[in-house]
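Work through this protein:
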Amino acid sequence: MTEPETRPTAAALVIGDEVLSGRTREGNAWHLAKTLTEIGVDLREIRVVADDREAIVEAVNALRARVDHLFTSGGIGPTHDDITADAVAAAFGASIGVREDARAILEAYYAAGELNEARLRMARIPEGATLILNPGSQAPGFTIGNVHVMAGVPAVFQAMLEGLRPVLKGGAPLLSWAFRVGAPEGELAAPLGALAARHPALSFGSYPFYRGGAGSTLVARGQDRAALDAAAAEMRAMLAALGVSDIAETPPG
């Protein structure tokens, strides 16, 4: 069996009072997690903070020191509570102001007289940052160091993330093999634990469901397809030995 390839790491920082108050259902971190899994980057942490400058600065500095990439979502719009750009600049000790290339993008998008002072706030970029283009509302995000600062609106966040894909170098994709079975977790825990111990290069999870009776979805994950195939074969044997016949498999795509 080949040794698993080391994969780059990432964290997500979701910024906004509206998320913490329950007014907005957060979906950007979920989309980011799926995308990074496809690319081959391990998302290690998701954190949510309020629209508070000190909280954002503290979180940015803590997270960017631990991972290869930090992705932020929210707080780069035109209103008074959109303070992410200023907070990220403060975290890096960088100056911030309206940048001409960002201003030009907004001037080309808005009709004459529509680019008011509030909208011009979206052209404020920290010194040393590179722009992340926004094919939707045009207001750019930016990358400074290993921090990628993006919008909170899901469609815009997703478009910006797609634009970043070419520069996000990942490792081998994480593969998964799922078994949906008609047996409760308590009956599967001990043999599943033994199976996991025999395959330390893989990770295993168990997720209960209650539709027409108690059931479980057992998932094996790893980068080595041969090791995953071997674990799947043992999973089938384990379930057969337990007398579980209600099984639906989802192999790696």
DSSP finds nine helices and twelve strands in the chain. The chain has a mean pLDDT of 93. The radius of gyration is 22 Å.
